[in-house]
Amino acid sequence: MKETNKVQFSFTVNRGEKQSLEAAAKEMGITFTELLRTGAAFYASFDSAFWKKVKNFSRNLGIQEYLILQNLTISWMARKEARAEVWGPEPEQLLREFQFQENGPVTGEDLHETLKKSFVREFENEKEYQLNLDSQYGALSEEDAEWLKQRYAKYNKAKEAQKEAIESRKRGLTASFHEGENEGKILADMKAKREK
């Protein structure tokens, strides 16, 4: 049985606010006290780095925090529904916003970084497709042409690393490569260890 502590507090609200809160509790099918407890727990549960971003967003737009959260959630839902309408429903495992580890759902900065990397890849693919399309109808800006050039150079480097890895496996060597690593040095080191 969970240990509980009784907490009492009081605060002042105007008559309209109290009626509004009571009506909200009634609509949700909970007591006024449960509404206040749930609201306090809700706000206290946010990741601090996330809440700072929400507060800044709220301050910059002059919109209350709950509307920021509500409208962003509505936007997310509308986008998912529109995508499903055009492409068909997404399998549940593709909901990248809801990832799980052994100790529960991933959230906070960990989720932010994971999603940001995923979106960067998605937007890079979109940009590449659009620039290739644009290049068929006219010259690209110097900046866009350089971006595409670097992207293709990255592809070629990855293709070479993959080819080298396949050749190494055939010779009995195995390795996994990461961008920026010197693949040749890794293979040479592995070969030297194997020959000892």
The unreliable regions are none
The quaternary organization reads as single chain
Helical content class: 55-70%
Give the number of helices. 7
Q: Mind describing the biggest β-sheet?
A: 2 strands, antiparallel
Query: Would you count the extended β strands for me?
Result: 2
Order of helices and strands: HHHHEEHHH
Structural class: mainly alpha
Lateral arrangement of strands in the main beta sheet:
1-2
| CA-based gyration radius | 27 Å
Name the overall outline.
elongated
Distance between the termini: 62 Å
Relative strand content: under 5%
Global mean pLDDT: 84
Question: Mind sketching the topology for me?
Answer:
Blueprint: H1 15-28, H2 32-44, H3 48-61, H4 65-87, E1 100-101, E2 104-105, H5 108-135, H6 142-170, H7 183-195
Which tags fit this structure?
196 residues; mainly alpha; two-stranded antiparallel sheet; 7 helices; 2 strands; 68% helix; elongated
Note down, in words, how this protein is organized.
Strand 1 and strand 2 (104-105) form a beta hairpin. 68% of the residues lie in helices and 2% in strands. It has a two-stranded antiparallel ribbon. It is an all-alpha fold and 196 residues long. Among the domains are: 106-138; 142-196, no CATH class. The protein has helices at residues 15-28, 32-44, 48-61, 65-87, 108-135, 142-170, 183-195, and strands spanning 100-101, 104-105.
Could you provide a short overview of the structure?
The protein is mainly α.
